[in-house]
Specification:
This protein is α/β, with parallel strands linked by helices. Helices cover 38% and strands 16% of the residues. It has helices at residues 59-66, 90-103, 116-127, 151-165, 170-174, 179-191, 205-220, 247-255, 272-275, 277-289, and strands at 2-4, 21-26, 29-36, 44-47, 71-74, 109-114, 132-138, 233-236, 259-261. A 9-stranded mixed β-sheet has the order 1-2-3-5-4-6-7-8-9, sandwiched between helices. Strand 2 and strand 3 form a beta hairpin. Helix 2 crosses helix 3.
Length: 290
């Protein structure tokens, strides 16, 4: 299943649904990843949401971005196909991501961070200013942002309800309860099934608990000084995010010195970039290419 690789030189796939799962050694642990798109230019590293694995990225978003950019998605330490023990702080996850990037031999990358991945991206951008060129933050918020510490309880509640109703919790967590929102959510869940071979492992319960702890701590810590993030940042979200309330998106855009705010997607929630994948991809590519 995995093609081990410690250098970013082999030819990437043209479609995320068929992209091989490779691995790279990071301080003795194997990090699983997939890549596609052209080999030239600054790579775009994808940082996934809570409990997310490689198969949780919308193939329309990944394929759309990879039409013009080299895109690399990976599993955090101890999650999915990556070995090791999952960190329980955002800062430790950020250090792992930097080690992963350097293990692939890159000296400059762009970041797309979704939800928890956006927390990680903020830390990396602040601590590694020479490594990070541009950042896209989606469905996320700053440390200490209003409501972020409620994400673990909300997620557990939705997971339990989903088990009782046989409904994927992402439907209620990522999308609105309107007819349009539910239709978009069902379409998204169908797209996640497009990959039928060599799928990733689901997150384990210990790894899930570690991530929940990290998110609660992020939500309760003192706000970081976002003025230290000097890279250009594109900020996006739906207008009705239940998980990371949408006013956190507006706060990010207001406090980041070089931010661009995508108007909040109407009738959309935490998964706004999946619901409006065509619009998001076009705007992200414009931003990354400018």
């Amino acid at each position: 299943m995995n093609t081990p690789r410690n250098s970013p030189s082999s030819s990437p796939s043209s479609s995320y649904r068929n992209a091989p799962t490779r691995s790279v050694s990071v301080r003795g642990e194997d990090f699983a990843y997939r890549e596609l798109g052209p080999e030239d230019g600054v790579p775009l590293i994808l940082l996934i949401h809570l409990a997310g694995v490689l198969d949780n990225w919308d193939p329309r978003v990944v394929d759309g971005l990879a039409a013009r950019r080299r895109v690399i998605a990976f599993d955090n330490r101890g999650v999915g196909g990556s070995s090791g023990s999952t960190p329980d702080t955002i800062e430790a996850m950020a250090r792992d991501a930097v080690l992963f990037i350097r293990a692939l031999g890159f000296d400059q990358v762009d970041l797309l961070g979704l939800s928890m991945g956006g927390f990680i991206a903020q830390v990396i951008a602040e601590q590694e200013p020479h490594l990070i060129r541009k950042v896209v933050l989606a469905g996320t918020g700053p440390a200490g942002g209003t409501g972020i510490d409620k994400v673990p309880a909300l997620t557990i509640q939705a997971t339990l309800k989903g088990a009782l109703t046989r409904q994927d919790p992402k439907l209620s967590l990522f999308f609105t309860e309107t007819e349009g929102g539910r239709r978009a959510g069902r379409a998204f869940l169908e797209r996640l099934k497009e990959r039928t071979h060599h799928r990733d492992k689901d997150i384990s319960l210990p790894a899930f608990r570690a991530q929940l702890k990290a998110i609660k701590q992020w939500g309760r810590q003192a706000p970081s000084d976002l003025s230290e993030i000097r890279q250009p940042v594109l900020v996006a979200n739906g207008e009705n995010d239940r998980m990371v309330p949408s006013h956190n998106t507006l706060d990010l855009a207001a406090r980041l010195p070089r931010s661009e705010l995508v108007p909040l997607y109407p009738d959309a929630g935490h998964g706004g970039i999946f619901q409006y994948h065509d619009e998001f991809v076009a705007r992200a590519l414009e931003f990354l290419g400018s």
